[in-house]
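Lab notebook page, bench 4
Experiment: in silico fold of construct C2
Operator: M.H.
Input chain length: 601 residues
Purpose: comparison with the prior construct
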Amino acid sequence: MENMKRSHTCGELTPADKGKQITLNGWVHRIRDHGGIHFINLRDRYGITQVVVDETAPQTLKDLAASLKFEYCIAVRGTVRPRPESMVNPDMPTGSIEIEAKEIEVLSACETLPFMVDERSEAREELRLKYRFLDLRSFAMQQNIRLRHEVSFAAREYLVSKGFYEIETPTLIRSTPEGARDFLVPSRIKAGSFYALPQSPQLFKQILMVSGFDRYFQLAHCYRDEDARGDRQPEHTQIDMEMSFVSKEDVFEVVEGMLSHVFKKTLNIEIPTPFQRIPFDTAMDLYGSDKPDLRFGLAFRDISQLAEKSDFNVFKSVVGDGGVIKALKVSKGAAFSRKQIDELEKAAKTYGAKGLAWMKVTDSGLDGGIARFFENITDTLISTMEAEPGDLLLFVADKWKTACTSLGAVRSKLGEDLELGRSNEYRFCWVIDFPLFEEDEETGGWAAAHHMFTMPQQQYLDTMEKDPGAVKGDLYDLVCNGMEIASGSIRIHDPEIQKRIFNIVGFDEEEARRRFGFLLDAFQYGPPPHGGIAPGLDRLVMIMAGEKTIRDVIPFPKNTIGASPMDDSPSLVDEDQLKELHLQVIEESDESEGQDSQQQE
């Protein structure tokens, strides 16, 4: 190999290198035999170069070229020469040159491939994950992982330039409630005790602020034992940051600056700042979601008062019971079939709606669906909806939250079905003024809407216990193209306010100290006002790469049931290992046969 070590990569040679004696190393991407002339497309991380074994080459070289198979790893020594003008490939960076092979060495052979390594693998995802080492060779995955690297580097570069320290926090911690199940790690030394893998570095980054580090960040690995889906994984990475002596506007400025730098440096795209700010109630009222996709309109209108003037008793009854009527205009939607409308209704019912009413706007007024009940106010309704002939009007009648979220699901489906959001467009917004508390349907009490360390907004401090449902927190989410990519808040630094929050959510002092004692201890020693945020690296790269799932931007992800087909994890362990950890496996019942669990002895 020493004599055949590469002098160049497969993506850098140009006509300026004509006549050079070079050596390339890489994988056989494609092979063609044109009447005794062998063409080999040789691929590495940097690109593809065409290698030619001419008919005048020694027979041994031609025989070797003929024996090559897809994905053989080879070394080629040869001379750079221009391609004939008729064979120039303008779509390849190296498409105007080729290598006249003088020597080929097979570095390693390749078994029959389970799928072709190509621009983008068309194999089933489970097969791609089982042979991830091959899938990662594809052009699309190479580009995605390169983008992930560049985004990570650009984020680090920007934050360090703004005075942040990159500080690692532990991955073996005590279990604390953060909304999802913990992954637990049994202790060999302390029988019956467990570490937890961090769902986030939340408590430790707050302690770093108490410790005076002022500006912290890390690309933090986080672990949550929850169901996987397109934008979630059991383990994920976030660009975690925390700052002292800041308001939310200071946090916004840092994040907007970082993302502007990241997009400019990696995609050469200018991101307009500042990002739009939308209060939570407004986002729900207009778009039915706290993560609205602003690449298209389809904003809602409230026609509750107008519906009371109609002849439709269903709507009147809902309004009389304190509900609302939310309406959505779909331009040119009158062409929708009844089947398409039924599919939209199915989306609405998924979020609790009892149905999806509709009517179409025609040259003569309204037609179809519930149009007959609005004949007395046809002109007023059309004017209110700013509708034109050919439009479709959709309605949901229910309590405010149900009406908003269910019609929001319809809006999202319309955006996807009609391809209203262009993949090369990036629309950011901040969603602010979230409720601090939400009702716990099981207990009838109150729970933290996000987490228990968020500062209530100043105007609610005097009335917090009297009406928890009305309290807004100093919370904020960053949304891009209908996906939440960051969540953060200004934190509580006053121990007395923290105690009040614990009391409202039913955490007595003993329980709070058991769960968060080390943080509460730190807060006795002059904690500064502080706040932070954690943009999700996986989701951000997924959006930038135009992919549909974060599994396509993570080198070694888990599948939709949290397993890795490549290394077959999770897996059983030896009995001796269990004994060392003071654990035993409990046999599964018939209902869960085939699944293994390990419980504390």
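Observations: The CA atoms of residues 188 and 581 lie 5 Å apart. The two ends are 54 Å apart (CA to CA).
Next step: discuss at group meeting.
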